[in-house]
Design goal:
This protein is mainly beta and about 90 residues long. The protein has one helix spanning about 60-70; strands at about 1-5, 10-15, 15, 25, 40-50, 50-60, 75-80, 85. About 15% of the residues lie in helices and about 40% in strands. The chain has a four-stranded mixed sheet.
Length: about 90
C-alpha cells in the first residue's frame, strides 16, 4: 500500500508486483480522487514523503523533457508492448 497525492488530496492505493514483469498500481479513481481522466496521458510520479507519491499528468512538451532526462540517465525502458517508462535518479 502507498499513498498517491493528486491536487493536494492523498489516497491509499495498492501496488502489486507480478511474476510476469507486469507490476500493477491501482490509480486514484478519475474525477473522484484523481484527474478527470487518464486517457492518452503521460503520468509522472514524484516521491514527496515516506511511502507517498504525487502524480501529475504531463503535457507533451514537458513529457519530452522528462523522457530526454531519463534517456540521458540510462533509465528509459520499454515494456514488451512498446509502452515506455523511465526513472529519474
Amino acid at each position: 500500500t502507498l499513498n498517491i497525492v493528486f491536487a493536494g488530496r492523498s489516497v491509499s492505493r495498492h501496488l502489486r508486483y507480478g511474476h510476469n514483469g507486469m507490476d500493477t498500481l491501482d490509480l486514484p479513481i478519475p474525477g473522484l480522487d484523481g484527474p478527470p481522466r487518464y486517457d492518452h496521458s503521460i503520468l509522472a510520479f514524484t516521491r514527496v514523503g515516506a511511502n507517498q507519491y504525487e502524480i501529475k499528468l504531463l503535457n507533451p512538451r514537458i513529457a519530452g523533457r522528462w523522457r530526454g532526462r531519463s534517456a540521458a540517465a540510462g533509465t528509459l525502458y520499454a515494456m514488451t508492448g512498446g509502452r515506455e517508462w523511465g526513472v529519474l535518479p
